[in-house]
Design goal:
The protein is mainly alpha-helical. The chain is 64% helix and 0% strand.
Length: 208
Amino acid sequence: MTPERLRLHTAPLRALAYAASSELLASPHDLDPRALLATRRRQCAPLRWAAVLEPAIEALAAAELDALQRGFSGLFEVGDQGPPVPIRESLRPARPPGAREEVVRFYEFFGYAPGERFAWQPDHLSIELEFLHALCVQEAHAPDDAAARPFQLAQGDFTARHPAAWLPAFADDTTAQAAASPYAAAARAVADFVAADLAWQLATLGPR
């Protein structure tokens, strides 16, 4: 591990930023994100590349719940013709066959289990981001740098192969469908955060 990683400082902050990212794109029918998000701006502030999340956090935290529910359903939920913007990786165009199964294998290997209500959609973007939160927590709690290394490598590998690979197109599609929606701002902010975090990960992982 390169010294610049400073995992005991960065891993907890990155865990909070991934939690905020997950909450920004979670279904407001399952989770009212507003109270959680109201605290995230302060929590994530010391992580400089999480600043891109702040306007989206503020917008969702201040929104009415029924407006969020309508907006989320109109963009991301499956109807007779499918969702206007698929928020599950396996439903995205151009994603490779077997992406969902690979996501599940990551989860199983690292002992991550989505709640029973969400087990049917393990490739939902919010759940992929929650998995990265869990890996950051495991990195932070590891007893030493050697024990933290597998969680660091998994973060880089999973981020590159999954959320970072389809978030830009997802953000573009969300903006094209509803540019004024707080979810368009959330999708773009999360895409920018994940891209910046992946660049930081690759710069600090050192030789593999």
